[in-house]
Amino acid sequence: MIKRTFLFLLNVVFLFSLFVNQGEAAGKVCDRCGKRITGRYLVYKIDNQEVIVCKSCDSNLPHCASCNLPFHRNQMVQSQGEWLCKRCYKNAKYCSLCGQRIKDRYFTSENSGKIFCGACYDTAPKCPVCKLPVKPEDIDAASGACWDCMKKLPRCASCGKAIVGTYYTYRFAEGKYCQQCNDSRPKCYCCGTPIGNLYWKFPDGRVICDTCNKRVINDVDQVRQIMSEVEQLIPRYLGMQVKNPYTVHVEALNNNSLISASKVKNGQASGSPLFGSELGLYRRMNGKSEIFLLYGLPIEMIYETAAHEYAHAWQAENCPPNQSKELVEGFAQWVAAEILRVKGYKIALEKLQARRDNPYGTGYQRLHTVHQNLGRKQVLEFVKKAVQ
Which residue of 137, 250, 268, 288 is 20 to 30 Å from 312, comparing CA positions? Predict the structure, then answer.
């Protein structure tokens, strides 16, 4: 708040400078030298008390820079180049920015305990975080924040700069992201967060953050081993067995175009049918079944994708061919969730369960409800017959 202080009006009021003749001064004693006054004298009033000073003391003694009363040197304190009486020194307020004694109105911050003279508050640049005046040399050029606030501000997980104002967080990912990085930086193909200054890039154009890269499986044989494990886990825990053989392909993304990937999907061209954000694909064409898996994913995503595509292979053998997209994808998500549960990938499971998009998220929620109400075996019986 802004306070107006009028030191001379509130603390010290010079009532009068009265010159009297020697007869009128009879009986008066100077409050500074202690001598009986025989000539002219002055009367000051402070806190409703009169201070009588002879003309000699008033002329020869130094005056307090604040209350203007004369004092002996041993009754004063030197501060910031000024001499103040001990009382005024005790009550003096100094600007937290320029360091000068405040003589007029001032601004006080109750949160920080700092006070600022009117001149500094009106003219100095202000920190956008604490809103207090700051010296230009004490401002961070990038954020505009003062150094004290810089120590408390969150740092952007992408660019590392202090975040002033709006920031973004991602569920299942640590860190906060400034608006500029969130709006302009490429997103990690795996976790979807804005990439940092250190990231990994694949020949097919994917970019992956350094955190996800630590769990990435790039070796084709390892991806195939995970697929083989999933082929054993699903029959064991879910009672689903794919009878018809299929071929497993471990591919990169088709970075040519969506048209090129679509031609591969339809058997009109060779290469990878995976495009955009696709992680895997099951295809049955001309009596031949194939599963395509994307390499270069964190291990839990490979398990999830392998289980998802295996579920599609099982559906092709056991479910009506005209099932809705929501049933087809929702069931595959349900199978993937059960394998993630078996493998103990808790965060990946929670991320899958949190999806609400159609058909993957809404489809999973539908099958999950059947599981909760009727049990695991009834999910298989339901999906074998349901169309919509």
Answer: 268
